[in-house]
Write a structure and sequence with these properties.
371 residues; 45% helix; globular; alpha/beta; Rossmann fold; seven-stranded parallel β-sheet; 2 domains
C-alpha cells in the first residue's frame, strides 16, 4: 500500500508529540513490510527532520506557508496525486481527504479539562479532533485510559478503537552515576544532588504545587537537593517567578529550559528521583524515560499514569501538596525502596518499544484499508 502520514509537530521542538511522529516514521520505515510511506509536512524544516527518507519514505512540504490553506487544499490534492491508500493524521486531520484514514487520539483533555488550553487554541483544536474521530476508519489511542475516555465521551464503536502505546528510544538507558553526574556538571553546571522534573512548564503539569511541595520537603527534611526543571515555559505559567519568590526557594530551583532528547539520559541518570505530578496525561513519556534510565519515579494517580507506571512508581494525588512532599521524603529517605523502584522501573519500561508501536500501527493501516 501507499501510506500517507500527515505530521503537525515534527521539527518544532514540541516534546512528546514530535517524539511520537519522529520515532513512528523511523520505525515503520525500517519495519519488514512492502508499504511505501509519504510524509506530509507544513515546513521545509519539518521535511528535513523526517527520518529514513529514501526508497520507502518520502517527505513532502505542503504549500503555501499558511497552515489552514495547505491542510485544506494542498494536502488533499497531494493525497490524490500520490495515490494514497490509507492516510494517517498523527495529531490533527485534514478538513478533506480522499483516502481511508487512521487518526491518533492523544488524549481527551481539550474536552474534559478545557481550562488547560487558551481559548483560541481550544476553539481550533477541539473541532479538528472531533473531525478526526468521526472520519477515521481506525482510531489509535495511546493508552487504555485514552481508549476508555474517548469511547465514553464520544460514544465511538469499540471496534474502531485500538490501543497502541508509545515506545521509548534506546538512547534512554542507565548510565554510570559518576559519569552521568560529570556530564550534567559540564553541560548544565549542576554539581549538587537533585530532584528532576522533565516536561513542558504549563498549568496542567502542576508546576505550582510541585514548587510548594518541594519547599515543604526541604523545610521538613533539611536535605540539600535542588529541584531541576527541564522544559519550556508556556502561556499559563506566568506565576512561576512570583511563586518561587514567595516560597523563598530562588537559589534552590534550577530551570534549564528546553533540553534536547540527546541530553536527557545523563540528566535522568544523575537525578536522585524523578517527580511528575501532572494533572492529566494521554501517555506520559517522561516517566518511562526516567524508569529506563534507572531513576525512581514519583507520579500522579490520575488518567493514564498508573497504567503506564505499573507497580514501579510511587503514586500521589496530584492536588495534594502534602502527598507530593511526603513521597519525595519517603523515596529519598529509603535507599532500599529506591533500589526496588529502579529494578521494577527497568522491567516496566522494557514493555514500551517503538518497534512494537510501529508493528501495531502498521496493523492499524491494514485494518483501515480493509474496513
Amino acid at each position: 500500500m501507499r501510506i500517507g502520514i500527515f505530521v503537525a509537530c515534527l521539527g518544532r521542538n514540541d516534546a512528546g508529540p514530535e517524539t511520537y511522529e519522529r520515532e513512528l516514521i523511523s520505525h515503520i520505515g525500517a519495519a519488514p513490510n512492502g508499504h511505501d510511506y509519504h510524509v506530509y509536512c507544513f515546513t521545509k524544516a519539518a521535511s528535513k527532520a523526517v527520518p529514513g527518507s529514501g526508497d520507502r519514505v518520502s517527505a513532502h512540504t505542503l504549500w503555501p506557508g499558511i497552515r489552514p490553506v495547505s491542510a485544506s487544499v494542498t494536502l488533499p490534492l497531494m493525497l490524490m496525486k500520490h495515490g494514497i491508500d490509507v492516510y494517517h493524521a498523527t495529531f490533527v486531520p485534514a478538513p478533506f481527504q480522499s483516502a481511508k484514514s487512521v487518526f491518533t487520539m492523544h488524549d481527551v483533555s481539550p474536552f474534559t479539562h478545557p481550562h488547560f488550553y487558551p481559548v483560541n487554541i481550544r476553539r481550533r483544536l477541539a473541532p479538528l479532533i472531533q473531525r478526526g474521530l468521526r472520519s477515521a476508519e481506525v482510531i489509535i489511542c495511546v493508552s487504555e485510559n485514552c481508549r476508555q475516555t474517548t469511547q465514553e465521551l464520544f460514544g465511538i464503536d469499540s471496534k474502531r478503537l485500538v490501543v497502541v502505546p508509545h515506545g521509548v528510544s534506546g538512547d534512554f538507558k542507565p548510565l554510570d552515576k559518576s559519569a552521568a553526574a560529570q556530564r550534567v556538571k559540564e553541560k548544565f553546571n549542576i554539581d549538587q544532588p537533585y530532584i528532576l522534573y522533565v516536561g513542558k512548564l504549563e498549568a496542567r503539569k502542576n508546576i505550582s504545587r510541585l514548587l510548594r511541595a518541594y519547599q515543604q520537603f526541604r523545610d521538613e527534611t533539611k536535605l540539600p537537593h535542588k529541584l531541576v526543571l527541564a522544559g519550556r515555559r508556556f502561556w499559563d505559567l506566568d506565576d512561576i517567578d512570583s511563586t518561587i519568590s514567595k516560597l523563598g526557594i530562588r537559589n534552590d530551583i534550577i530551570e534549564l529550559g528546553y533540553v534536547p532528547d540527546g541530553e536527557l539520559a545523563p540528566l535522568y541518570s544523575a537525578a536522585e528521583v524523578f517527580v511528575f505530578p501532572s494533572l492529566w496525561e494521554g501517555f506520559g513519556f517522561p516517566i518511562v524515560e526516567a524508569m529506563k534510565c534507572g531513576t525512581p519515579v514519583i507520579t500522579s494517580n490520575v488518567s493514564c499514569l498508573p497504567e503506564v507506571a505499573g507497580d514501579a512508581a510511587e503514586l500521589i494525588h496530584p492536588e495534594s501538596t502534602e502527598e507530593i512532599a511526603a513521597a519525595m521524603a519517603k523515596v529519598l529517605g529509603n535507599s532500599h525502596l529506591r533500589e526496588a523502584m529502579v529494578r521494577k522501573g527497568l522491567v516496566q519500561a522494557a514493555r514500551f518499544t517503538w518497534q512494537e508501536t510501529a508493528r501495531k500501527t502498521i496493523s492499524a493501516y491494514e485494518a483501515a484499508a480493509s474496513a
